[in-house]
Design goal:
The protein is of the alpha+beta class. The protein has helices at about 15-25, 35-45, 60-70, 90-95, 110-125, 125-130, 135-145, 155-160, 165-175, 180-195, 200-225, 230-240, 250-280, 280-290, 295-305, 335-340, 375-395, and strands at about 50, 55-60, 75, 155, 310-315, 320, 325, 330-335, 395-400, 420-424. Protoporphyrin IX containing FE (HEM) binds next to helix 13 and helix 17.
């Protein structure tokens, strides 16, 4: 998938007043800075409404979204990575010349092709491989957190959350740590290009960054064919060289790209939201400071409260009824996982960060069904280690009141881009 449109169809024939009002009040590119007020209204008043600006149907209730995720034939992933804003004509050209993509990414596939890609990914990203990685992740967290200042404010995103998950994925893929800043910049480029609304010249510039990123991955794979290392890329190169699986160099580059993007931005956002949300509802922070055995539960509750993959896309392959609304075949849909996770019918007192909540793991923060997150184990492990180390190191950590708050305008990924904290 080189980021080209896969076609749009399906507008509503009639709308209720509540739907029209929500369509006016919902701004798909900025709502993730403060998502909950408009979504709470939507769940109560018009749980499915059409967003005129992006021509997507917005689906907000837990039961409806879960049912959709259980039916991938009716709700295809073909549009998951379509650019949400029209692309400047220079972009497809740059990506094509740079050899970017070449085949669809896993999150974009349906049916057998999806199952086959997932099987191969799971072969290298299995629970044992993740568990074996724990000491290294902990060491990395301790080193980076140990450098945070005490007694003076610091931006936790700049000092920790942007780089930590990238470094973890780098080690997993066997990439050198020196280029981490550059790569996090390229990842932002892709996010803004495909999920945001950038002016044409910025799009053309970011496309060049993406091609550079792609080339960097290809060079790494080439270097591995001589002497494959003991990591994800090395494992895949061995599978390719042994002929054990039908894997090509382009496939490996494609998997690396999926991991770098799906594993970095998401975990960066989630660590930031987790720490912010727990400090905002301080009793949640105190609960795990007092009893660290509750940390795994706090991680699940964080994924429920504000998942970083907040809003994801599907396309209806036929006409369907969703919460009493007829959605035509071909329609593009936003499945707002972060709204489903605050549905009071599923999670009583949904705005409360409650580490002792019943049925914690029922959230959709890591998806559900065929496309459930491949990196869930690695994500959960990183979040757990960060919370363990941070609460032990800085139990008196606080939010800096009235500090600057930044977010990247985009339709899918949620999480702070600045988070000012102080350890007193
Ligand atoms: C807190 C961090 C993370 C969150 C919240 C998250 C969330 C998600 C969600 C919601 C999906 C499902 C998308 C859909 O419904 O189509 C997904 C899929 C995926 N995730 Fe994650 N993820 C995280 C971390 C990671 C990590 C660390 C990796 C890899 C190292 C990863 C790799 C993937 C891949 C490859 C898919 C596509 C799976 C498929 O299409 O079958 N994710 N993730």
């Amino acid at each position: 998938m080189s980021g080209l449109e896969s076609g749009i169809d399906g507008c509503p024939s009639h709308t209720t007043t509540a739907q029209a009002q929500l369509s006016d009040d919902f701004d798909a590119f900025t709502f993730l800075a403060e998502p909950h007020p408009v979504l709470t209204r939507a769940r109560n008043e018009a749980p499915v409404f059409f967003d005129e600006a992006t021509e997507h149907w917005v689906v907000t209730r837990y039961g409806t979204i879960k049912t959709m995720l259980a039916d991938p034939e009716t709700f295809s992933s073909v549009n998951a990575l379509d650019p949400i804003s029209p692309l400047d004509e220079r972009v497809p050209q740059t990506l094509e010349v740079g050899g970017f993509g070449g085949r669809p990414f896993i999150v974009n596939l349906d049916g057998e092709a999806h199952g086959e890609t997932k099987r191969i990914m799971a072969k290298v990203l299995h629970p044992r491989a993740v568990a074996a990685f724990e000491p290294r992740i902990r060491q990395l967290a301790q080193d980076m957190l140990g450098q945070l200042p005490t007694g003076e404010p610091f931006d936790f995103v700049d000092r920790f959350t942007l780089e930590f998950p990238a470094l973890v994925i780098f080690e997993f893929l066997g990439l050198p740590a020196e280029v981490v800043r550059e790569v996090t910049g390229w990842a932002d480029a892709r996010l803004e290009l495909f999920f945001g609304s950038l002016p044409g010249d910025r799009q053309a510039h970011e496309a060049e960054g993406i091609v550079e990123f792609w080339k960097f991955i290809e060079d790494h794979i080439d270097a591995q064919t001589e002497n494959p290392g003991d990591h994800f890329v090395g494992d895949l190169v061995r599978l390719m060289l042994d002929g054990e699986e039908d894997v090509t160099k382009n496939d490996i580059a494609n998997y690396c790209w999926s991991f770098l993007f799906a594993g970095h931005e998401t975990t960066t956002g989630q660590i930031g939201s987790m720490v912010r949300d727990m400090l905002l509802q301080r009793e949640a922070w105190e609960a795990v400071v007092d009893d660290p055995t509750k940390i795994s539960k706090a991680v699940e509750e964080s994924l429920r409260m504000n998942t970083s993959v907040f809003n994801w896309r599907r396309r209806a392959t036929r006409e369907v009824d969703l919460d009493g609304i007829t959605v035509p075949g071909g329609a593009n849909l936003f499945l707002v996982y972060g709204s489903a996770n605050r549905d009071a019918d599923q999670f009583p007192d949904p705005d409360r960060f409650d580490v002792d909540r019943e049925g914690l793991r029922k959230h959709l923060g890591l998806g559900f069904g065929a496309h459930f997150c491949v990196g869930a184990g690695l994500a959960r492990l990183q979040l757990k280690i960060v919370l363990e180390e941070l609460t032990a190191l800085m139990p008196n950590l606080q939010l800096v009141p009235d500090a600057e708050q930044r977010y990247i305008d985009n339709v899918s990924f949620c999480g702070p881009r600045s988070l000012w904290l102080v350890d007193r």
